[in-house]
Amino acid sequence: MLNLDRDVVIVGAGPSGLTAARELKKAGLSVAVLEARDRVGGRTWTDTIDGAMLEIGGQWVSPDQTALMGLLDELGLKMYARYRDGESVYLAPDGSRTRYTGASFPVSETTAAEMDKLTAILDGLAAEIGPEEPWAHPKARELDTISFHHWLRQNSTDEEACNNIGLFIAGGMLTKPAHAFSALQAVLMAASAGSFSNLTDEDFILDKRVIGGMQQVSLLIAAELGDDVVLNSPVRTINWEPAGEGHRVTVESERATVNARFVIMAVPPNLYSRVSYNPPLPRRQHQMHQHQSLGLVIKVHAVYSTPFWREDGLSGTGFGADALVQEVYDNTNHGDTRGTLVGFISDEKADAVFELSAGDRKKKVLESIASFLGDKALDAEVYYESDWGSEEWTRGAYAASYDLGGLHRYGKDQHANVGPIFWSSSDLAAEGYQHVDGAVRMGQATAARIVAANSRVAAVPVA
Ligand SMILES: Cc1cc2nc3c(=O)[nH]c(=O)nc-3n(C[C@H](O)[C@H](O)[C@H](O)COP(=O)(O)OP(=O)(O)OC[C@H]3O[C@@H](n4cnc5c(N)ncnc54)[C@H](O)[C@@H]3O)c2cc1C
């Protein structure tokens, strides 16, 4: 058992916790990062499966994600653009397949007009409400007490338009059914990416990837931190008490006991209750954490001897709100001669395919990808399903959102520290919410808050 004395102990070695640790060290504070898993990176994880390098977790970077891009620069990591030449494929509700180019789905004129109308309303709300404090806006309660599903149908009677617009936020981002979260939560998701239109533009939101993989962000920071990162060490208990103008903290994990003055819980909110707090957290926190949950999505990877779809003039991009695999993209690695496709199966569709045997599931999933890109998709050389719902130290994907009514009710308290305990993860971010960029922003902001709090304590003369 390690016994460590540090200024700050950080629970979780994902991008948020590691960014915070790096910033704190830059400011002259000592840190220890305690990580439950045998690796760093959390929901970013680049691994080789059957000879293919796969991004099992987070991977894409969009042009607005400047905090992440700044960090990539500092770490000497380079990016490359996602392959997007050629036609995309749209699967209509009746299963018919249309090849198209440009940003708009090939739908009827009426449906296109309805989609444009819904997009304009959501863009307006995102601009008006913003990502910082959606709970404080005068329309917060009204928008937070109606499900996104019903809000869409309040604004349009066109079912195909509602499902297509719903897909960008429900299956596509929060990975929950549109009846399970509010219109306000949808507006936050849109505002966090700059606008709703940005979320619908795959050339924007899925613009670039990191050469060598997104997990390198965490691996490189962990290498800088050296022995200050302790793996295989789930934190079980946080004890704290007032001491002078500050606090005395003792954090107990599987492999280390750390005495410190501040703690950062850099884990998703659904895992806060895996830790015992002494004294217990306040009522407000106990309640709030029960309203934040992760969505569910299966990220499916299929690797082929060549990117065969390109020869057919296809970009590899496909959308079908009613298809099993609702979105598919070319995910070929930088400089790779093989071709990789990635597809996503969200929420209730994921529940349904998890009822199947692994063999039947693979068959159904590849058939669904083939319905976009042709029968060659059936013959994947490598097939892998990222199943984050089964990961004890995550329990879902991509990130946490509030249930209906939770955002306006609790949001204002989600950043409140409890004595020496601060919260930091992409799930609490404004810009970059649910993304690695948000994790980095939260890590930087939380470190800055602790540096400020530390200087206040240090400035008080010891009596
Ligand atoms: C399949 C998938 C695809 C995604 N795609 C994208 C994408 O393309 N682009 C993008 O920007 N984002 C994407 N994301 C989201 C992105 O990966 C996350 O937002 C980001 O990793 C969150 O970072 P974090 O540090 O806040 O939390 P995490 O990455 O979850 O890190 C938290 C860490 O805390 C550890 N931990 C938990 N409990 C304890 C405990 N009690 N004691 C010690 N350690 C603990 C965990 O093991 C983990 O390492 C994706 C996520 C998934 C799962």
Can you tell me about this structure?
By secondary structure, this protein is an alpha/beta fold. Among the domains are: 2-44 and 214-281 and 418-459, FAD/NAD(P)-binding domain (3-Layer(bba) Sandwich), CATH 3.50.50; 46-61 and 78-103 and 203-211 and 296-397, Polyamine Oxidase, Chain A, domain 2, CATH 3.90.660. Helices cover 36% and strands 23% of the residues. The chain has a seven-stranded mixed β-sheet. It has a five-stranded mixed β-sheet with strand order 1-14-13-12-16, with no helix packed on it. Helix 3 (109-129) crosses helix 7 and helix 5 runs antiparallel to helix 6 (159-174). The longest helix has 24 residues, at 436-459. The chain binds flavin-adenine dinucleotide. Flavin-adenine dinucleotide (FAD) is lined by residues 11-17, 34-37, 42-44, 57-60, 234-235, 266-268, 271, 274-275, 299, 386, 388, 393-394, 397-399, 425-426, 434-437, 439. Its EC number is 1.4.3.10. Keywords: Oxidoreductase. It comes from Arthrobacter bambusae.
**Overall SS class:** alpha/beta
**Strand neighbour order, sheet with most strands:** 9-8-19-20-21-18-22
- What sort of overall outline do the alpha carbons produce when their principal axes are compared? globular
Distance linking N and C termini: 35 Å
Number of helices: 16
The CATH topology name of the domain at 2-44 and 214-281 and 418-459 reads FAD/NAD(P)-binding domain
Characterize the largest beta sheet: strand count, sense, and whether it forms a barrel. 7 strands, mixed
The count of strands amounts to 24
Contiguous low-pLDDT stretches (5 residues minimum) are none
State which percent range the strand residues make up. 15-25%
The CATH architecture name of the domain at 2-44 and 214-281 and 418-459 reads 3-Layer(bba) Sandwich
Based on CA atoms alone, the radius of gyration comes out at 22 Å
What is the CATH C-level name of the domain at 2-44 and 214-281 and 418-459?
Answer: Alpha Beta
